[in-house]
Amino acid sequence: MNDLIERAAQDLARAKKVAALTGAGISVESKIPPFRGKGGLWEQIDPMEYAHIDAFRRDPAKVWEVLIKGMKDVIDQARPNAAHLGLARLEELNRLQTIITQNVDGLHQMAGSSDVIEFHGSFAWQRCMQCDERLPTQKVSLDRIPPLCQCGGVYRPECVFFGEMIPPEHLARSQHIASRCEVMLVIGTSATVQPASYIPVLSKQSGAKVIEINPEPTALTGSVSDYLIAGKAGEMTSRIVASLERLI
Ligand code: NAD
Ligand code: ZN
């Protein structure tokens, strides 16, 4: 383990262009549960029944009640953990320029990272499905479910539901960055949701080192990633940053 931490620090010390791809796992230590895996939400509910845009259109009250209300409670309380702060520190050290995140919780920005591509959108805002009026999620009243805009339209989070497209500008910019970085850090993602899971593949094909931090092996381990640092995002990221600070 110590060897791999040291190896990651050296890879980062040598690199000028570094990007990161993060997933739900990086926010687990901020008490936001992941969707997949142990304790994940999908063990309890079927994603196609609640996280697909057709399900939302069919019965927005049901999706608000079971999925969105709970997410709002959890995300309202969440604060960045050592992994988010470690990535912000890497940016200060000029060893990370862009974070591509699948998360919708805004914790990278709260930690101080300045260039965050929100691949699956953001939970910070709600948008009326009828007139496109936007409202910060923190200001949405839950007295009525689903919450309604003044025009009578239903509010939806500005997240990408299953069945919806990734915003094309986010996809294009992520692909551009992934194919030009020298190191791609992949933290806390099971790499099973397309097209996000293709980002590290692009980096690998373009000659970058792909470093994974995850307590469990993933779809990338042993094929796309050069090595897996098997542990929790917070501790592993802080240890890498500490080693890097000794090196540079
Ligand atoms: P995922 O739920 O598929 O997988 C989570 C991954 O995190 C797993 O590989 C797991 O081993 C790993 N993990 C668990 N604890 C960890 C820890 N302490 N440190 C590091 N890794 C840990 O997540 P996904 O691949 O990101 O895909 C699910 C989709 O749902 C994504 O779009 C994701 O953004 C979204 N989602 C977002 C949030 C959030 O915004 N915080 C929360 C849940 C799901
Ligand atoms: Zn409206």
Short summary:
With 248 residues, this protein is of the alpha/beta class.
How is this structure best described in words?
This protein is an alpha/beta fold and 248 residues long. It folds into two domains: 155 residues, 3-Layer(aba) Sandwich (Rossmann fold); 81 residues, SIR2/SIRT2 'Small Domain', CATH 3.30.1600. 37% of the residues lie in helices and 17% in strands. The protein is built from nine helices and nine strands. The strands form two sheets. A six-stranded parallel sheet has the order 3-2-1-7-8-9, sandwiched between helices. Helix 8 links the parallel strand 7 and strand 8. The longest helix has 18 residues. The protein is elongated. The protein starts with a helix and ends with a helix. 43% of the residues are buried. The structure holds nicotinamide-adenine-dinucleotide and zinc ion. Zinc ion binds next to loops. Nicotinamide-adenine-dinucleotide binds next to loops.
Task: Give the helix/strand layout.
Layout: H1 2-14, E1 18-22, H2 47-50, H3 53-58, H4 60-77, H5 82-92, E2 98-101, H6 107-111, E3 116-118, E4 121-128, E5 134-136, E6 155-159, H7 168-178, E7 183-187, H8 198-205, E8 209-213, E9 227-229, H9 233-247
Parallel strand pairs: 1-2, 1-7, 2-3, 7-8, 8-9
Antiparallel strand pairs: 4-5, 4-6
The site of nicotinamide-adenine-dinucleotide has 29 residues, from loops.
